[in-house]
UniProtKB/TrEMBL annotation:
This is Chondroadherin-like protein. Associates with collagen and binds to collagen fibrils. It comes from the Eukaryota. It comes from Eudyptes filholi. Residues 296-344, 647-693 form the LRRCT domain. Pfam families: LRR_8 (PF13855), LRRCT (PF01463). Potential negative modulator of chondrocyte differentiation. Inhibits collagen fibrillogenesis in vitro. May influence chondrocyte's differentiation by acting on its cellular collagenous microenvironment. SMART domains: LRR_BAC, LRR_TYP, LRRCT, LRRNT.
């Protein structure tokens, strides 16, 4: 037997040697094959079957096709760096159940499909650094249950949707550095119970993504440096296990005293190279051992004494040196004595010419009576002070002004004198019924204006005079009965407009005049019955249109013309009973997310989805009343399809849908409402289809919904290297 085994081993080795591809080098002893920096345009088919490590760096594959590595099932390491790969077809790595390391760095991959990484159940490290990934479809990592390190560094990610990393149950390090992230879904990091380190440095985050980070109970290290974050708010970080936080090289100007109170394990805080002139005592951060403040313009005056005293009491090591006053410039913070930290400029009294309740400041540190100002940190607050008039006297370099929960009634002309650097203005819940012409005059840096929960019913364009940079305008929960016509003429940079939960009855022609740069329009919860055909035309760059919870009786097809960038349309909770032919044709080339749920919808015309196809990523049809839906077999890019609570009539007319569902790798929740023997059963489990003509052929051949004849054809096409339609995999539903 020993001789037979030896002979078999020698035969295998000989076979392996004989099958080594010409441009490659095969080390049979270590089962290692190298095909480096060649001109290969396809994965070699003659790689020895027993190969464990395959290095294909520097070739030109462009596409990794379905089943590209089926002949090498024993691979544990695969290197595809710098191979000009642009696309991973779904099922590209099927058969590699032993692979633990996959390197796809420095390619040109732009999109990860739902099953691009299917079959890699043992993979532990995945490196996708240095690609062009702009979008990750939910479910792309759903089969990587053994992955511990995911490197997505240096891609083009802008947004992370909810549940995008679902399935990564043992992931320990997620690297998202050097992208362009500026929006994170609140559930983006849900289902990552083992994550210990998250790298978000070198992105475009303008605020701490508190809600998303709160899902990471076990993370101990968070890298947020090199983001344009200006402020860390109260209890902004709720990470129970966090020990090391890096916020270096950001744009921080202020940190709230209890910003880290909900991260009790925090040990080191890196705030190097920001714009901090000081810090307050950090309440609740009882475990903090070290704070790094090097490279900040620290003002070592009496204002810094509370922080300095806290450092001593809490025995926290500090790194950093004074930038001012001149006598202390360069002195390390830990060398200072409290008497040296003096305030040499006494507070000046108000000018006699100025009314006492309206002191005018010149940036000298004055603050209206009863308000709180941080002249060094550039924030002011008069929240919930029962004020009847908007106070004057804030430092001229104030950037954030919080005036919420007062009773101003009116915002008069010139209400904010001298605040040329103000970026964010909060006027929520202030009983404001009028924004007078010139109210924002002089606010030339204003970007964010919050007027939620007031009594506004109209706005004049001149109200925004002097605030040309305004980009985000929130008018939710006011008393508008129509859009304020012409109000946006002086807002060339307006990107986001919130008018939700008002009483708007229609969108008329000219309502959006001047809003040429508008991208997101939120009109949910109004009483809109009609949208004029040209009402939306001025907003040619519109990407999101939210109309849920209105009184529309039909899809506003004519109004969608001229919106070539519209990617998300929400019509949920409108009393639309029927969707007619070509309802979404005007936006078919751009639409990705369509919401038609909870409408009482009774009928969808066979041609309702004409023009829509692979670009559709999510379709919501749940909680409606139709018993059939049209053929959607060309919706091959779906990530989400929700058909819950729809009373499907499970007869032969529904057979195409039944076959399609059987191939989808999505949870869709479709159930039968009739006939009686099928009521309550999932559509894919109902036996009522078994009497339909062609049922047997469909089961045997795995046909597409409208091509039952293909069942009798040979299945050679699956071996051709062409990708089957995305989503046509066996359902997990």
């Amino acid at each position: 037997w020993a001789l037979l085994l030896l002979a078999a081993a020698l035969a295998l080795e000989g076979t392996a040697t004989a099958r080594c591809p010409t441009p490659c080098v095969c080390d049979n002893l270590r089962a290692h094959v190298l095909c480096l920096n060649g001109n290969l345009t396809a994965i070699p088919s003659t790689i020895p079957q027993l190969t464990k490590k395959l290095d294909l760096q520097g070739n030109s594959f462009t596409v990794i096709p379905v089943g590209a590595f089926l002949t090498t099932p024993y691979l544990t390491h695969l290197d595809l760096q710098r191979c000009k790969v642009e696309r991973l077809e779904e099922g590209a790595f099927r058969g590699l159940g032993r692979l633990v390391y996959l390197n796809l760095a420095s390619n040109s991959i732009a999109l990860l499909y739902q099953e691009s990484l299917d079959g890699l159940s043992s993979l532990q490290q995945l490196i996708l650094e240095g690609n062009r990934i702009e979008e990750i479809q939910p479910g792309a990592f759903g089969h990587l249950g053994s992955l511990t390190v995911l490197n997505l560094r240096a891609n083009a990610l802008v947004y992370l949707p909810d549940m995008v990393f679902q399935g990564l149950q043992v992931l320990r390090w997620l690297r998202l550095s050097h992208n362009a992230l500026h929006v994170l879904g609140s559930e983006a990091f849900t289902a990552l119970p083992a994550l210990r380190r998250l790298s978000l440095d070198h992105n475009e985050l303008q605020a701490l993504p508190s809600e998303a980070l709160a899902r990471l109970d076990g993370a101990t290290r968070l890298d947020l440096g090199h983001n344009p974050i200006t402020y860390v708010a109260e209890e902004a970080l709720a990470m129970a296990s966090l020990k090391h936080l890096s916020l270096d090289h950001a744009a921080l100007q202020d940190v709230a005293p209890n910003a880290f109170a909900r991260s009790p394990q925090l040990r080191t805080l890196d705030l190097r190279e920001n714009q901090l002139q000081g810090l307050p005592p950090l309440a609740g951060a009882g475990g903090l051992a070290r704070v790094s403040l090097a490279g900040n313009p620290l003002l070592c005056s009496c204002l810094l004494r509370p922080f300095h005293d806290w450092l001593a009491r809490a025995r926290v090591q500090v790194e950093g040196a004074c930038a001012a006053p001149p006598a202390l410039r360069g002195r390390p913070l830990d060398s200072l004595r409290p008497p040296e930290m003096r305030c040499g400029h006494p507070r000046l009294p108000p000018s006699p010419a100025t009314p006492p309740e309206q002191p005018r400041a010149a940036g000298s540190g004055q603050c209206p009576q009863g308000c709180a100002c941080s002249p060094d940190f550039r924030h002011g607050s008069c929240e919930n002070k029962d004020l009847r008039k908007i106070p004057w006297g804030f430092p001229r370099d104030t950037r954030l002004l919080d005036l919420r929960r007062n009773a101003f009634g009116t915002v008069p002309p010139g209400a904010f004198p001298g605040l040329k650097e103000l970026v964010s203005l909060h006027l929520q819940s202030c009983s404001i019924g009028a924004l007078r012409p010139g109210a924002l005059r002089g606010l030339e840096s204003l970007v964010y204006l919050y007027l939620t929960d007031n009594h506004l019913s109209t706005l004049a364009a001149t109200a925004f005079e002097g605030a040309p940079r305004l980009a985000y305008l929130d008018l939710d929960r006011n008393a508008f009965t129509r859009l304020p016509t012409g109000a946006f003429q002086l807002l060339p940079n307006l990107i986001s407009l919130h008018l939700q939960h008002n009483a708007i009855r229609e969108l008329a022609e000219g309502d959006l005049a001047g809003a040429g740069g508008l991208r997101w329009l939120y009109l949910a919860g109004n009483a809109i019955r009609r949208i004029a055909p040209t009402a939306l035309a001025p907003a040619k760059m519109l990407e999101k249109l939210h109309l849920e919870g209105n009184h529309l009786a039909e899809v506003p097809t004519a109004s969608l013309r001229g919106l070539p960038a519209l990617s998300e349309l929400k019509l949920s909770r409108n009393p639309i009973k029927r969707v007619g032919d070509s309802a979404f044709l005007p936006v078919a080339s751009s639409l990705q997310h369509l919401y038609l749920d909870n409408m009482g919808l009774e009928q969808i015309s066979p041609g309702a989805f004409t023009g829509l196809g692979p670009k559709i990523r999510s379709l919501y049809l749940e909680s409606n009343k139709m018993s059939h839906i049209p053929d959607m077999s060309n919706f091959t890019g779906l990530d989400i399809l929700n058909l819950r609570d729809v009373p499907f009539h499970c007869d032969c007319q529904l057979l195409p849908l039944r076959r399609w569902i059987d191939k989808l790798n999505l949870r869709i929740g479709a159930t039968c409402g009739s006939p009686a023997e099928a009521r309550g059963l999932k559509v894919k489990l109902s036996t009522t289809f078994q009497t339909c003509p062609g049922w047997g052929r469909g089961k045997a051949g795995g046909t597409s919904p409208n091509k039952t004849k293909a069942a009798s054809k040979p299945s050679k096409k699956k071996r051709s290297g062409k990708s089957p339609a995305r989503g046509f995999k066996k359902s997990r539903a």
